[in-house]
Design goal:
single chain; mainly alpha; Dna Ligase, domain 1; 2 domains; two-stranded antiparallel ribbon; 12 helices; 47% helix
């Protein structure tokens, strides 16, 4: 009797589980049908950004949390039940209200993006830009660097065999929306155009007329400010130190130029690093380095074009006070440096 009771209970339980699974499947099918749309879109359409490395299930979770997807749980069941395989493509997508889950997944997998949003931070070098483009899928690093080397130079960029890249400093750091079909040359053209726009903005803001012949000087100085300044409102003071040292025919002795010469980042520049033979090493050469050492943003360009008027010749960063400490003499600078533990 006990065995029969257990058998009946097992059969009932099995039927119950089967009914639940059947209802779940029916619900999932209805949920993903053309009549039941998975997207909660209040407008006619919504833009969705997929970052490099994000998975389909990760997108389900994120959009569910953002209130765009009705259910990440049933979306995953649908994907699993239908054997959805393969990754999704990064970029920015546009979806309409009547998009079904099937269409939604297919669009993400085929990479039918409207544009790819990409941000190049201030201070990025051309190598940094190439790496980020490679990661975004817009262009390979090799392809972009080759385009940089062969791109016809604008009138304000003079060829210089000592420079690593003639266009270094002029590819303006900003946030861009690029078509997935954009070419490396078109990316360069867009970034150069943005640089030209910013220079015109600076002319209006400062009331200064800046000739194209001065662009390289200002961009080179701005690039050093960009790499050296840790506090925004001290950029114009750092600019004054650079100009004061140039006017006195002193070596600039800027660590950031040494790092660019080395071609790698280091937390601490060692004494042996200062000996590197390079047209960028301002410890060994007088005047400006061979060219810009990064692509500076607008605040650094403004500081280079409109520096503060000071008598400072030295500065050192104080992590305790979170600011640069400026001085007029080497003796004063040496004492400050010693007090700060340098």
């Amino acid at each position: 009797m006990k065995k029969k009771g257990k058998s009946k209970l097992f059969i009932i339980l099995a039927i119950f589980i089967i009914l639940i699974l059947a209802n779940l499947i029916v619900f999932t099918v209805k949920y993903t049908s053309n009549e039941k749309k998975p997207l909660e879109i209040s407008k006619n359409e919504v833009n969705v950004t997929v970052n490099k490395g994000e998975s389909l299930y990760g997108i389900f979770e994120r959009l569910n949390n953002e209130g765009i997807l009705k259910s990440s749980f049933f979306s995953k069941i649908y994907a699993n039940f239908n054997g959805v395989k393969g990754g999704i493509q990064p970029g920015e997508y546009s979806f309409k209200q009547d998009t079904s889950l099937k269409e939604f997944i297919e669009i993400l997998q085929t990479g039918k993006v409207i544009s790819t949003k990409i941000t190049f931070p201030e201070g990025y070098t051309i190598d940094d830009i190439a790496k980020k483009l490679d990661e975004s899928g817009l262009a390979t690093k090799v392809e972009f660097l080759e385009a940089v080397k062969t791109y016809p130079l604008p009138s304000y960029v003079k060829p210089n065999e000592n420079e690593r890249y003639a266009l270094e400093g002029f590819l303006f750091p900003d946030t861009y929306n690029f078509s997935p079909k954009i070419t490396s040359n078109e990316i360069i053209e867009t970034m150069l155009s943005r640089f030209e726009e910013v220079m015109k903005e600076i002319e209006k803001e400062t009331g200064k007329t800046i000739s194209e012949e001065e662009y390289e000087k200002y961009v080179t100085i701005a690039s050093m400010i960009e790499k050296e300044a840790r506090i925004d409102n001290e950029r114009s003071k750092i600019a004054s130190v650079i100009y004061n040292r140039l006017n006195k025919d002193m070596n600039l002795q800027i660590d950031a130029t040494v790092l660019y010469a080395l071609g790698k980042h280091k937390e601490v520049v060692l004494y042996k690093d200062l000996k590197i033979n390079s047209p960028y090493n301002t410890y060994k050469i007088k005047g400006l380095p061979a060219g810009p050492i990064c692509n500076p943003g607008k605040p650094s360009l403004l500081a280079a074009i409109n520096p503060e008027q000071t008598e400072y010749l030295f500065y050192v960063y104080s992590s305790i006070e979170n600011k640069h400490v400026f001085s007029k003499t080497y003796e004063e600078h040496k004492k400050i440096s010693k007090d700060l533990g340098y």
